[in-house]
Amino acid sequence: MLAMAIVLALGIDAPVALWTVPAQAEWASGDEHHLNVRLERPDTAISMRGEVQLRAVLAVQGPAFRISRFLKPTGGIAFDVMDMQGRRVAPLEPPATSPPAAPQSSDGLTVVRPGQPMTLQVAEFPRWVFPGPGRYRVRLLVSLMNIAATPTRYQQWFSNTVTVDVID
Question: How does pLDDT run across 108-165, given as a tens digit for each residue?
């Protein structure tokens, strides 16, 4: 059974949980530190009535990783949202969850090599990411599990932080 990754972070008055079901991946033992997650700042403000569209780039500096093509919010990706003072904030509504993807063979995973990054368009409803209009600092938590390893290995990476403006 797939385990749910939970990271608790203290917010203003109550804990804000960053959670996501880990996505499937494969990497060589000891190469966990070779994955970098870069989040790109959006060109325009995000509307609470639209959709959050953020671009993330996963790159490796060492041996190749194999990563599920089903990597998405609540499926290996969680949004870590902070106010401008650095305090974590909860979304207006809790995000809807989706069941984990079925296990893939190694051939069904996307290969990420040095010089050949994996680019993702991370899309989500703003009410599941932000508490409302304002200016926020955002980063992604990427949570992966290597089911090819014995025992299964779990690893998490944070992206860089970008500032976004959210409007009504």
Answer: 999 999 999 999 999 999 999 999 999 999 999 999 999 988 899 999 999 999 999 9
State pLDDT tens for residues 37-49.
Answer: 999 999 999 999 9
pTM: 0.84
DSSP line for 58-77: EEESSS-EEE-TT-EETBEE
What's the Cα-to-Cα distance from 58 to each of 42, 77, 85, 128, 140, rounded to whole Å?
17, 12, 27, 23, 11
Once rounded to an integer, what is the mean pLDDT over residues 20-41?
Answer: 86
Token output for 143: 């949570």
Rounded Cα distance, 82 and 64, in Å:
32
Nearest Cα to Cα of residue 118 among 127, 109, 126: 109
Alpha carbons 136 and 117: distance in angstroms, whole number: 27
Residue 34: both structure tokens together: 């070779």
d(CA 108, CA 162): 32
Alpha-carbon Rg for the chain in angstroms = 16
